[in-house]
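Hey, I was hoping to borrow your eyes for a little while. For a while now I've been wondering how a particular protein folds. The fold is given in discrete form, as structure tokens running alongside the sequence. Could you read through the record and tell me how the tokens relate to the sequence? Take your time with it, there's no hurry, and the full record follows here:
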Amino acid sequence: MHTTTEYLNRYIIFISLLLSISHSHATAVELCKSSPMKGNQYFVSLVGHDYKGDGSRLRPYRTIDYAIYMAKDDSTIIVTPGTYKGETRIKKGFKKGLLLKSEFPYLAKLTNNSRVLAIVGNASNIIIEGFEITHSSKKTGPVLIQFDGYATDKVHHVTLRNSIIHNSFNNDLVKINNGVEDIKIECNMFYNQGDSDEHIDINSVKNITVSDNVFFNDFKKNNRKISLETSSYIVIKDSNSNEDQFLGSQNINVLRNVFFNWQGSRGQGFVLIGEDGKPYFEANNVTIANNLMIGNSPIEMRSPFGVKGAQNIQFYHNTIVGDLPSQAFAFRINTEKNNPVNNNISFYNNIWSDPFSTMGQGPTDKNNDFSDTLHYQLDSFTLHNNVYWNGGSDIPSSFFDRVNIDDDPSAHIMDPKISSSHALITPIWKEDTQNFDDNSYSIRDAFKKIVLLYGIPKQKLNFKSTTPITTLDILGNIRKKSTVGAVELD
């Protein structure tokens, strides 16, 4: 139970954050709202019984699987607080939809010593909301959550939202693969994947949107060793050639997310497109927009953003800021093995800001660059209307790189004056007190706190783009001027 003082403290923190913003917005979209209940309601409880229950609050079912089996179309399954062990399999499709919801956010915990949640079979038109999802031991089978289309088009229109997804001890936190379509991963918190794997693996699929999430790692807080072997937070690729209906992941959107606290391999980064050196474009038509990428860790990465064998990639309205030890502060574009040459990669309206003048002075490579892109590994590209800052020092440039700041005809070299992130607190979930380490009580509160404290330029940056962008900024404000960075400034 939360005391009056705790709620007052939350209110004071929230108001102080609002007052710290020097800009205003006429129109905004409220993101991450709780999903409204659907018609029929079924309850699941640890004291319930599958065969003797009827799904009512007084006679609830015992397992989510059985509740889904019994649920009619256009229904809500409400899971009461407690720890639900074992794999939950969702393989049933719905026409009007199903809402699977924790009764109270994050108090229904799904856990297993192998895969925890499988979305397979004919699963469609489903929203999964409000859970804590994690492995139950350090010796476990792979993956926490898997959307698996089995090389068909039957798994589609599924949303995973407002859930805490953390601590896979084997493989990814979320795997979306084998022909899945129309999936939304929104308003969640992700941290601590397994070695050599990702927070989200997007692999040979179509129409996937990852939006409004928090991504970070903090292994020590969960009594885990920092192995320096974990991979990118998000990878977008196609590992299986033509084994399903897609050749290359298609129409992928990574929008309005926060990435920080890197603790992985020095060969990886926050977002990577392509990975396996295939002889075809591993991704086509990918948008990375309105994200905040924060360098608050002393651990080196390869580059916050990378592309390997892909085409038609748009990277715009992102803010990359902080002391970011890396071999390329902005991006790396390359080919490996049998990759085709990367083509049509666009970067515009972004902020790249290192206030500590360490861009070009990596911990292991003293000649690291703004970007790493060999001439023969990239065909066409666009660099336009971005802000660049290296603490007053020159932006590093190299004759051997295909992309340099001189390629931006509207480059703005200036200090955006974004607050230091050295004091950033990783918002690990505390089950005993039912809040996060930064004293937030919801994922959305933690998200906003990070953006408001560490993503708002104090310098006016009204450089209107010649490229019209009709989209939402990272806080859900409707862009009207299309100014640079993740936040639309008045």
Remarks:
- The chain is about 5% helix and 35% strand.
- The first strand starts at residue 40 and ends at 44.
- The longest helix spans residues 4-19.
